[in-house]
Amino acid sequence: MESMSQVSEMNSSSARMEVCATHPREERRAINLPEECRNIFITYSSDAASEMVAFTDFLRKQGFLPIGILDNPRCTDDNKKMDRYLKDPSTLIIIAISPQYKADIESSVVDRHGLHTRYFHTMMQKEFILQGSLNFRFIPVLFLNASLNHVPSWLQNTCVYRWPWNSEDLLLRLLREERYAPPPVPVELTLIARPVPTGSAALL
């Protein structure tokens, strides 16, 4: 396979985000994650490249370090770094789902960017199979006019987000938090045993 492209922090810019005609909250959440858990690897196809500036700016404002790919240049050291992120279980991987993404992983004719996309998809699918078909760190996010039909079949049973409308839920996923906290369980449980009268026991 053609050598993979350079790992690079994506350039930040002013985000242009709307969620149901309103802007998502701009305040930054307090992150209690260790530094190595703040790396977010993003794999995307060429048609979603225009969305990556706003998307990575959103992630960066929340304290994450988005890692992406460029088509140029070729660098062996950066290729090794790319594989390190792919194999590091502490790094969550966002899969930017778009119409071109589906074409890149299924079509026999793709460009250089498409080859990278297909390589990452193959690596992720192998990990998914080795994990017993359980998904621990792959997060599919719909971009542009993508639908669930564009999501790879092996990810159909996982939670799928849409950018930018589900940005708040996506953020909770990246923070490893739940939207609804479970009710607290008392430290000590009180058990009350009541004797059953002999007559009542016979009826049972």
Write the layout of secondary structure elements.
Elements (H helix, E strand, L loop, with lengths): L4 E5 L29 E5 L8 H10 L3 E10 L1 H12 L4 E6 L1 H8 L5 H19 L7 E5 L18 E2 L4 H8 L23 H6 L1
Parallel strand pairs: 2-3, 2-4, 4-5, 5-6
Antiparallel strand pairs: 1-3
List keywords for this structure.
6 helices; 16% strand; 204 residues
Describe the model.
This protein is of the alpha/beta class. It contains six helices and six strands. α3 (99-106) packs across α4. The longest helix has 19 residues, at 112-130. The model is unreliable at 1-26 (pLDDT under 50).
Q: Would you summarize the structure shown here?
A:
This protein has helices spanning 52-61, 76-87, 99-106, 112-130, 167-174, 198-203; strands at residues 5-9, 39-43, 65-74, 92-97, 138-142, 161-162.
Global geometry = elongated
Stretches where pLDDT is under 50 for at least 5 consecutive residues are 1-26
Strand content: 15-25%
> Percent range for helical residues?
25-40%
Quickly count the helices: 6
Number of strands: 6
Task: Name the average pLDDT.
Answer: 79
Radius of gyration of CA atoms, rounded to a whole number: 22 Å
Structural class: alpha/beta
| Termini separation | 73 Å
Order of helices and strands: EEHEHEHHEEHH
Largest pleated sheet = 6 strands, mixed
Reading side by side through the largest sheet, how are the strands ordered? Answer: 1-3-2-4-5-6
